[in-house]
Specification:
alpha/beta; TIM Barrel; 11 helices; globular; Divisome_Glycosyl_Hydrolase
């Protein structure tokens, strides 16, 4: 069960409240928690020497001496729950609140995005709540590794670390001059037109703005995935050097055919993407990081549960879709079942795969939610549920108990 730090900020600020909800999580059939300890703003939920402390959210202030992590660890032991700590890695701001490290001392670390109207820092893109950083910067990576090292040292009884947002913002990032220079050195090329030789903007048949691939696109995709792979390796080593028994895991979306846009390759190194995907170079498979993980939490974030549901929907609604890479109709993987099947093929048993369900997608449809839970459990090595706040708001503890404790 995932506990988001913002949605549950006040709820996790009282020991009695923590105890109450952890008891319900255990009774529902869960074995472990994932607790956010570093927010998308770059603020930590523990007192860090490196990052600002998140002691307030939406007007609610935690007592200065309150140690959320220790409280959760203590209550989790009482209820025989393991605790994984989640850290949002390459995110440093919340653009809806103008808050985070990219709005303070680390504005120079923020992603520079190439939008249809030109290059702009991500803090100016107010429709995008994620104030992402540039993962390629050495100082950004060192900063994140210092925080990971600090946390594991402070809380040695933690069961594992889950890194979230270990990625780029999207295909439009990062187009800073630093990234340009680093790519040119990596690829052994001199970019004549930047960013257009990587991606450029054009109009589709309906007059809408779309991005298209430039001549260096595939090498650029490979380089970005290399950046994320190498950081993943460094993060694993940082944790294992302190305690080899601490699990190291990742959350990422499991919709793999378009996830390369975020610079992420969570597949096994044995999987050769270039056979199937025209964006992948022959060397792209070397960026796969499944073998570096002790567990992978892959988001199966779809309302449709079965492949059959997708096929039926395509028959009934033969209209153009707006989702990335959809075209007419939806692919088979646009379902919990299909996406899980694809993930298993990509991972090739290199690491345990935990099918992850986004509760809010099933609002008002308890039966479909129960079917999604069962499918994720059937198709993967375990279940991760995001987030406890949606279970609380919908009061769906009964469907969890009925599904997980048959």
């Amino acid at each position: 069960m995932w506990l988001d730090c913002q949605a549950n900020f006040e709820r996790l600020s009282y020991p009695d409240s923590v105890d109450y909800f952890l008891k319900k999580v255990k009774q529902a059939g869960f074995t472990d928690l994932v607790v956010d300890v570093k927010s998308i703003m770059g603020e930590t939920l523990f007192k860090s020497k490196y990052a600002p402390y998140m002691g307030e959210w939406k007007g609610f202030n935690r007592p200065d001496k309150y140690d959320m992590v220790n409280v959760i660890l203590k209550k989790a032991r009482k209820h025989k729950l393991g605790v994984y700590a989640s850290l949002n890695v390459f995110s440093g701001g919340h653009n809806f609140y103008d808050r985070g490290i990219i709005y303070d001392e680390h504005a120079d670390w923020q992603s520079i995005n190439y939008w249809m109207d030109g290059l702009r820092p991500i803090s100016e893109m107010k429709w995008n709540y994620n104030g992402m950083l540039n993962p390629a910067l050495a100082e950004v990576q060192e900063y994140q590794l210092n925080i990971i090292r600090e946390f594991v040292t402070m809380y040695p009884s933690i069961k594992g670390i889950i890194l979230d947002r270990m990625r780029y913002d999207g295909i439009t990032s990062d187009f800073s001059l630093q990234s340009k220079a680093m790519f040119e050195e990596y690829a052994g090329v001199k970019i004549e037109k930047f960013p257009e030789d990587i991606i450029y903007w054009a109009k589709d048949e309906n007059g809408a703005d779309i991005w298209k691939r430039g001549k260096h696109f595939n090498q650029w995709i490979e380089w970005r995935a290399t950046i994320i792979h190498d950081f993943c390796a460094d993060a694993r080593k940082t944790i294992k050097d302190i305690d080899s028994n601490i699990d190291f895991g990742i959350y990422a979306g499991a919709w793999y055919p378009v996830y390369y846009e975020l610079g992420v390759n969570w597949a096994s190194k044995k999987y050769n993407q270039s056979v199937k995907y025209d964006w992948a170079t022959k060397n792209y498979q070397n960026t796969g990081y499944a073998e570096l993980l002790d567990l992978f939490m892959g988001g199966l974030y779809f309302k449709e549960v079965t492949i059959e549901e997708v096929e039926k929907m395509n028959e009934e609604m033969m209209t153009n879709r707006t989702e990335a890479a959809m075209g007419k109709g939806r692919e088979y993987w646009y379902s919990v079942e299909g996406c899980a099947d694809m993930a298993n093929e990509l991972i090739q048993e290199a690491t345990p795969f935990y099918g992850s369900i986004y509760v809010d997608q099933y609002e008002g449809d308890k039966e479909q939610f129960a079917r999604a839970l069962k499918m994720a459990l059937d198709k993967s090595d375990g279940l991760m549920l995001f987030d406890i706040v949606h279970i609380i708001n919908s009061n769906w503890w009964d469907v969890l108990s009925e599904t997980l404790n048959p």
